[in-house]
Design goal:
By secondary structure, this protein is an alpha+beta fold. The chain has 5 helices and 9 strands, in the order αααααβββββββββ. A 7-stranded antiparallel sheet has the order 8-7-5-4-3-2-9, with no helix packed on it.
Amino acid sequence: MTKTSPEISELKKQIEKIMKRKMQTPNDFIFLSGAIWERTHETMSPTTLKRLWGYVDGADTARNSTLRILTSFLGYEDWDDFRDHIANGNGSDPILSPHISTAELNVDDHVRVSWRPDRRCTFRYLGDNQFIVEEAENSKLKVGDTFFASLFILGEPLYLTDLVQGKNPPVAFVVGNRDGLCEVERL
């Protein structure tokens, strides 16, 4: 596959989106190489990545092993799965950012989140996707508030449903609307 094909251009675009950075400097390629190792436990040298992005001269085609590792990094089964996905244009993507799902939690587990500029909360899981706020700093959320949520994704806003604050009727609420969550941690 030539490095200038639309499929490889889309592959690079999706990788840059996940990494939240353009691959423009040697350090970007070193960082990506490390991220690939962390997610896939497969080695991809920064030099190979530089060649693929055209940062340095090299072969005009990408090796199948390179494409397999990079599509695996994005959460696809293999290169063919990736190509089928973009050909169908279904607009859906796997969640690759660090995240916590309520399916992973037990009752009384705690989740801490923070968002800009200086807000932080700790929630206790009550079961059935319901949480209670146990700690709140610089937030409109207050200790004792309850809400429903099922997924906490780093870098994405947190959408709460049926937020109950005191005797007020339940409302929908968005946490980290501008920049998303900058911390998501299971305690």
